[in-house]
Amino acid sequence: MLLDVKNLAVSYGKNSVPTIAEVSFDLNDGEILAIVGESGSGKTTVIRAILNVLPGGGRVSDGSIIFEGKNLLELDAGGWRNLRGKNISMIFQDSGNMMNPVHTIGKQFVEYIQVHSDLDKKSAREMAIEKLELMNLPNPENILNSYTFELSGGMRQRVGIAMAITFQPKLLLADEPTSALDVTTQAQIVGELMFITRGSGAAMIIVTHNIGVASYLADNLMVMSRGRVVEYGKTNDVINHPQAEYTKTLLASVPEIGGRRYV
Ligand SMILES: Nc1ncnc2c1ncn2[C@@H]1O[C@H](COP(=O)(O)OP(=O)(O)OP(=O)(O)O)[C@@H](O)[C@H]1O
Ligand SMILES: [Mg+2]
Q1: Ligand 1 pocket residue status of 42, Cβ below 6 Å
Q2: pLDDT given for residue 261 in this prediction
Q3: Is 66 exposed, middle or buried (0-12, 13-18, 19+ CB in 10 A)?
Q4: For residue 226, is it within any domain?
Q5: What does the alpha-carbon distance between residue 72 and residue 75 come to, in Å, rounded to a whole number?
Q6: pLDDT at position 95, please?
Q7: Which atom of ligand 1 is nearest to the CA of 19?
Q8: How far is the CA of 227 from the centre of ligand 2 (A)?
Q9: Is residue 145 part of a domain?
Q10: Best of 11, 38, 41 to mutate for ligand 1, by most ligand atoms within 8 A of CB?
Q11: Is 41 a pocket residue for ligand 1 (Cβ < 6 Å)?
């Protein structure tokens, strides 16, 4: 088993009532888990807790997060440096926002690679180009010489994904990776994420508001509401035989086309 999250609880600030609690799930190598649920249900909190990047004042107050047999809650700074980027990496909602607008994409990508490896500049640049090509980005040389504002949202997001997969991490965490994009680009990027994960054997946890995206991509589906897991199981089972009232409501809101539910 790659990741085993048990009974996870997170509290913010001095609040003694945890914001999320009793969150348990697991992930095998190469599996994709989608997390869906209403705004504020705690999806981002789960992802951030796994990567130990909770915002200030947020802390894990209960449970365990075991990655490849190691409890991540016991890692020190050095341990995290070895893990982030190489074993677990994150794809953000808008990768453009995560990058510095005053430096070229190439400068940042090459630096990122050099921080995590022993490669010289030239080899790091070659590696960056190779990863951009993997994400179907045309003229990778041009992209490396560009600034984030010169690229479309879809291209920026492809660059972000290219960076996240550079070191072939075993686990990708993606928090609404396509929600800032138009529908056509969303579909393309979801397809590419599927291709990348299935091709490299990476496991992924993807947070999405789009249950259609979840059902297309994910082996397992977790539905959250108010900081709790209300349903968790094989995607097909959850979609075809939802048990929780909340999941039924969520599915009922998905449009039907020609009498077939469009998920
Ligand atoms: N920085 C913070 N400080 C205090 N409380 C926070 C903070 N971030 C999140 N919370 C609390 O955690 C709850 C869950 O937030 P979270 O961002 O995990 O939800 P979400 O499911 O990702 O929502 P969305 O779909 O809107 O992104 C929020 O309702 C809020 O009460
Ligand atoms: Mg969120």
Answers
A1: yes
A2: 59
A3: middle
A4: yes
A5: 5
A6: 81
A7: 12
A8: 12
A9: no
A10: 41
A11: yes
Task: Quote the CA–CA distance of 17 and 190 in Å, as a whole number.
Answer: 36
Query: 218: Cβ–Cβ under 8 A, 6 or more apart, which residues?
Result: 32, 33, 34, 206, 235
What's the CA-to-centroid distance between 20 and ligand 1, angstroms?
Answer: 9
pLDDT digits (tens, 9 = 90+) for 141-183: 999 999 999 999 999 999 999 999 999 999 999 999 998 888 8
Query: What's the pTM?
Result: 0.93
What is the tally of structural domains in the chain?
1
Give the phi and the psi of residue 17 in degrees, each rounded to 5.
-85, 120
For atom 25 of ligand 1, the residue with the nearest CA is 39
Closest of 247, 263, 224, 205 to residue 33, by C-alpha: 205
Domain that holds residue 57: 3-94+172-261
CATH code: domain of residue 11: 3.40.50.300
pLDDT bin (cut points 50, 70, 90) of residue 85 is confident
Can you spell out the DSSP letters for 182-211? -HHHHHHHHHHHHHHHHHHT-EEEEE-S-H
Question: Residue for token digits 């074993």?
Answer: 87
- With a 6 A CB cut-off, is 44 part of the ligand 1 pocket? yes
Sign of the alpha-carbon dihedral angle for 160, 173, 197, 82:
positive
Task: Tell me the average pLDDT of the chain.
Answer: 92
Q: How far apart are CA 106 and CA 257, in angstroms?
A: 44
